[in-house]
Design goal:
26% strand, globular, Rossmann fold, binds zinc ion, 7-stranded mixed β-sheet, alpha/beta, metal-binding, ADH-like_C, 6-stranded parallel β-sheet, L-gulonate 5-dehydrogenase/2-deoxy-scyllo-inosamine dehydrogenase, Quinone Oxidoreductase, Chain A, domain 1
Length: 339
């Protein structure tokens, strides 16, 4: 048996005991050691996710140790690992075009497949990503969101030295974007949020300017010349109105990477901006072929992960964790369940 934290209906989580997953052929069993709670998990648990059915065991940002494997994969036993969360069909039109994240029959760990809020998880061996022993398992949880962020930067064609970047929203994804923008040599990096503590962390991770949007509007500040108009804007707010700000502040000819998940929310925008500024807008969905880069970045200590994983809880303490995450209490950015 194993403990899992399961969302049984919108807004309801239950800690329960279930059978350990039985391994199918070509699968390994991973004992989960850390499982982070992503802000998209909060939306998922509330039932705001597209195409979700309950019950579901959430958790797509996790790490663990391989504990069982079929004979031919015995060498994996004892290895620290994370896993690619996408299980595409490899047969549909999108898969044939190499867009696994858009697969028409996609299964995803923590959404349509059992996630990491559990003591064990069965994963197809093709999805297992063994990681170097030198990476602490707690830090390894950041590999998944970092792979998404790396994908975001690839989608906009990279960040060139001397380019200016704005990152709207400084949750973990926004802060990872700021860290990578700094590593890539952006000339100016603006990070916005309405939580001052997060902006302080953003400064430590590479932001050259921060703006608390509860004091003033980013549109006013950028368009009146008090702050620059960026070449690239990443919207990591998870709030539909963030997209309007991105459209309004980006420089003509600029690029927007849309990274936040705003569920079914709608924004009021002036679409003519897209034409008048000849903008390039990129949707960023899921980690793609960017896991190796994310592992390398963490292995080489290129990002200050301890500033991002601010809290640790036991699975039994889920109500406190969810309260902190939902209400952004006590300086929380990412919290991890320690299993
Ligand atoms: Zn996530
Ligand atoms: Zn497919």
């Amino acid at each position: 048996m194993m403990k899992v934290l399961r969302a049984t209906q919108p807004g309801r989580l239950e800690l329960c005991e279930v059978e350990k997953p039985a391994l199918k052929e070509e699968q390994v069993l991973i004992q989960v050691k850390y499982s982070m709670v992503c802000s998209s998990d909060i939306k998922l648990i509330r039932g705001e996710f597209h195409g979700l059915s309950f019950p579901v065991v959430p958790g797509h940002e996790w790490s663990g140790i391989v504990v069982e494997a079929p004979e031919k994969y015995k060498h994996l036993i004892g290895r620290k690992a994370v896993a690619d969360i996408l299980f595409p069909c490899l047969k549909c039109e999108q898969c044939r075009k190499g867009r696994r994240n858009l697969c028409e029959n996609l299964l995803e760990i923590g959404i349509s497949l059992q996630g990491g809020y559990a003591e064990y998880i069965a994963v197809d061996v093709t999805n297992v990503i063994p990681i170097p022993d030198s990476i602490p398992l707690k830090h390894a949880c950041i590999i998944e969101p970092l792979a998404v962020v790396y994908n975001a930067i690839q989608r906009v064609g990279g960040i060139k030295p001397a380019e200016t970047v704005a990152i709207l929203g400084s949750g973990a994804v926004g802060l990872l974007l700021a860290s990578l923008a700094k590593l890539m040599g952006a000339a100016k990096i603006l990070v916005t949020d309405y939580i001052e503590e997060r902006l302080d962390i953003a400064k430590k991770l590479g932001a050259t300017e921060t703006l608390n949007v509860s004091d003033s509007s980013v549109i006013d500040e950028c368009n009146c010349g008090r702050i620059f108009n960026p070449d690239i804007v990443f919207d990591a707010t998870g709030n539909a109105e963030g997209f309007n700000a991105a459209l309004e502040i980006v420089k003509p000819g600029g690029k927007i990477g849309y990274v936040g998940y705003s569920a079914h929310d709608k924004a009021s925008i002036q679409p003519s901006q897209i034409m008048l500024k000849a903008l390039n807008i990129y949707g960023v969905l899921s980690p793609t072929e960017t896991w190796t880069e994310a592992v390398n970045i963490i292995e080489n200590g290129m990002i200050d992960v301890d500033k991002l994983i601010t809290h640790e809880f036991k699975l039994e303490e889920y109500a406190t964790l969810m309260d902190y995450m939902s209400n952004r209490k006590n300086g929380i950015i990412r919290a991890a369940f320690k299993l």
